[in-house]
UDP-N-acetylglucosamine 1-carboxyvinyltransferase
Amino acid sequence: MDKIIVRGGKALAGNVKVSGAKNAVLPIIAAAILAEEGTNVIHDVPALEDVRIICDLLKTLGITLTYDKEVLTINASRVTSVEASYELVRKMRASFLVMGPLLAREGKARVALPGGCAIGTRPIDQHLKGFEAMGAKIEIGQGFIEASVEGRLQGAKIYLDIASVGATENIMMAAALAEGTTVIENAAEEPEIVDLANFLNGMGAKVRGAGTGSIRIEGVERLKGCTHCVIPDRIEAGTFMVAAAITGGDVFVEGAICDHLKSVTAKLREMGVEVDEQENGIRVRSNGRLKAVDVKTLPYPGFPTDMQSQMMALLLASEGTSIVTETVFENRFMHVEEFRRMNANIKIEGRSAIVEGGAKLTGSKVAATDLRAGAALVLAGLVAEGETEVSSLHHIDRGYVQFTEKLRGLGALVERVSPAKEVETEAVEQVKTEPIKVQFSPNFA
Ligand SMILES: CC(=O)N[C@H]1[C@@H](OP(=O)(O)OP(=O)(O)OC[C@H]2O[C@@H](n3ccc(=O)[nH]c3=O)[C@H](O)[C@@H]2O)O[C@H](CO)[C@@H](O)[C@@H]1O
Ligand SMILES: C=C(OP(=O)(O)O)C(=O)O
């Protein structure tokens, strides 16, 4: 299995370009199922494992896709199946996002139960509540959820008990082709919801209010393909902002949208990091002296749970005690155990982690427990003494395009090695100066 080897001690400097947002492109690809005519042309599609999986899923539904140079074309004029298999849903929870579009277009959908994952149980009750309110019959059995409706879905007023990102997206997509108007109250307000709404509207839908807690969707009879550019990934951007701060570096994060990163920017500034918001990106500078701060994850515009572990790495490098409270997911502290292997002093009390900064982190063998945890361990490795070896890289591949290459572009002493190369490393002890080969080259076509 591949590993990332990081040697700490280098201040990062230079320019890094942010890729398209994973969490925007996944629902957008699912929404492409709704286009009964024309072709969707989606730009800035990141070459990620999750993107490959959802593309594979659409192919099993009979849909035609091509992918070249970050441009994905999807022709969904023909849908030959309404079933999302366990094998695909198991690999990626977001596969469940095909349920709304399939139900709205085909009147039925059969999707494997997504189950829990490393960060919590992650129920889907709010998605199902929305579909039922729109007239769908839901049956659960043999590991699948089957949804069906006689005729078209009916517009409805839906109040979400939790401002769930996925439920808001799934219901929005279903409502786009429903008869009448749907109003989602307590809707999630994430930028990815706005991007999805823009894509749906590009296909001819009538979605208003995305980005607020109340979204109104007037159903239309047909949708057709359009051209769309995916927003930049705010979590990838935030990860590189932390990389600059933790190493006492000076990095321009090109393409980052300042508005999407306000909570992250505010916390970095509280810690003493200089954040310069520019039109086409964000420059982050730090002298490496960091103050401890408390962080609480919340739905957008609050501090993102997807930045919690990276922020914890930064707090470990700060002076003083910080409290990190996770309110979005019930079990998103798996990385704490891995940080401890690196000499971190962190205590968990319920939903909070008490992080003692200041102790010198030491390089160690650690494993990514989810994709953000994987990135966070690499960040910690950038300031640890000696060498850190991060394994279980399939997590990182889900959400970061060429992570090691981008870090190396900023001067980080980091590389990805495959088992064959490891042997070589031991044999000749030269690998640290060799250029690394690109490990990930997806072929979606
Ligand atoms: C592909 C994608 O976009 N993933 C993001 C999305 O996940 P996802 O859409 O799964 O996250 P949700 O906003 O739905 O989940 C938030 C909380 O609501 C709970 N919940 C959710 C749905 C439901 O029906 N019932 C319920 O109880 C979840 O268990 C969780 O505790 O938003 C999360 C929260 O910002 C991010 O961490 C993920 O990176
Ligand atoms: C938790 C995440 O993604 P997902 O919802 O796809 O598991 C994430 O992007 O950090």
About this structure: The first strand starts at residue 3 and ends at 7. Residues 177 and 220 are 5 Å apart (CA to CA).
